[in-house]
Amino acid sequence: MDHAATTYTRQDVLEAMIPYFHDRFGNPSSIYQIARESRAVVETARAQVARALGAEPDEIYFTSGGSEADNWAIKGIASASRKKGNHIITSRIEHHAVLHPCEFLEKAGYEVTYLPVDKYGLIDPASLEQAITAQTILISLMFANNEIGTIQPIAELGAIAKQHQVPFHTDAVQVIGNVPVDVKAQNIDLLSISAHKFYGPKGVGALYIRKGVRIDNLIHGGDQERKKRAGTENIAGIVGLGKAIELATADIPGYNTRLRALRDRMWKGIQETIPYCRLNGHPEKRLHGNLNVSFEFIEGESMLLLLDDAGICASTGSACTSGSLEPSHVLMAIGLPPEIAHGSLRLTLGRVNTEEDVDYVLEALPGIVTRLREMSPLYQKGRG
Ligand SMILES: *Cc1c(COP(=O)(O)O)cnc(C)c1O
After folding, report:
1. What is the secondary structure of 25-68 as a DSSP string?
2. In a mutational test of the pocket of ligand 1, which residue from 146, 190, 238 has the highest number of ligand atoms less than 8 Å from its CB?
3. 11-248, what's its fold?
4. What tens digit of pLDDT does each residue of 132-159 get?
5. Residues enclosing ligand 1, CB less than 6 A?
6. Cβ distance 262 to 353 under 8 Å?
7. When you count CB atoms within 10 A of the terminal residue's CB, does the N or C end of the chain come out lower?
C-alpha cells in the first residue's frame, strides 16, 4: 500500500537486466564487440524512453534517478541563464528534490517564487502568469503530487511558460504509467523520471531536455551522454528503465481502471466504518492509485506502527515521532490545520494489490483508529 514510495522490479524487467551485470559487461565507450553491444542496448533504451514521452531519442539523458534529474534541470538551467536573469518559479508542493535545489540557489543569490495551491493542491494558471517577470529563467512545476496525488493542468501551465519563452521543467516521477505524457503536446521543455516508481530498478532515471534548451552540466568528467552527463553508464539499470517504461505505458487505461476500482473500494469502506475522516487532494484530478485521508484526533506515525504490526505498509505526512514537529509541507500548503495534517495516512495501490488486500486493510484500520482515538484526549474533548 505504498507504491508511491517505490515499486518492486518486475520479473520481465529484471530478466532483461541480468546479462548486463555479468557476461555482457562491456563499457560502451570502448570499441570492441561486447562494448558495441552495450552501446547498442543503451541506445535501444533511449529510444524506448523517447517513444514513451513523445520525445526524440537525442533529447533523453540518463541519470541516477529522479533526484539527480530534478537537480540537473534546476541548477543546470540556473547556471546557464545567469546572465539572462535570476528568477525561478516553482510551487509550494514540490518534492524535496526540487525544493531543496531551489533553496540552495536562493543562498547563491537567485530569487524563487513558490506558487501557492488551492485546497485540492491545484496551481492556478493565472498565478503563474502573474509571477513571470523579465528576470524569470525557469519554471518548475510538478506534474502529479507524490503525497496527495493531485494532477496539475500541465499543458496549460506549459503553454503559459512557452508564451513567455521561459523554459518549463516538470517532475513527472509519479506520472509514468499513470497519465499519458507527450512533451510536445504538453509544452514541456524538461521532464524528470525515475525507474523505481514504475516497476523498474532503483538508481536510474532520465531527464528529457528539449533540443535548443541551454543547460549546464551537473556532473563533469568523460564524454558520456553526448558530453552532458559524465560517468560510465549504468547499463543494466538503463536496460531496465527502457523495458519498464515500455511496459508501464503499454496499457495506461487498463492499469488505471483496475487501480481506481481498488482505490474507490478502499475509500468507500473507510467512510462507512470510520467517522471523522476526510480526503486530501482533488476528488477527481488525482492519480488513480492514490488515497490520502486524514483521521481526526490521531497521529499518523502511531497509525503506521500499528498497521505495520498487521503487515500493512503505508505512509503519512506526519513526522511527530521522528522528532520533526512540522507536518508535511504539502498538507500545510493545501491549508490543513497541523493537527489534521498529523493524522494523515497515504495508501498508494499498485500492480500486485487485490480486492482481498483492500478488504484486509478495511478489516484492520477501523480497530486501529478506534484504539488510538480512545487514548487521545483530543478525541474525548472533540466528541463531547
Ligand atoms: C520519488 C520521487 C523523486 C525522487 O526520485 P529518486 O529516483 O528516488 O531520486 C522525485 N520526485 C518525486 C515526485 C518522487 O515521487
Report:
1. ---TTS-SHHHHHHHHHHHHHHHHHHHHHT--GGGEEEESSHHH
2. 146
3. Aspartate Aminotransferase; domain 2 (3.40.640)
4. 999 999 999 999 999 999 999 999 999 9
5. 65-67, 70, 95, 97, 142, 146, 171, 173-174, 194, 196-197, 205
6. yes
7. C
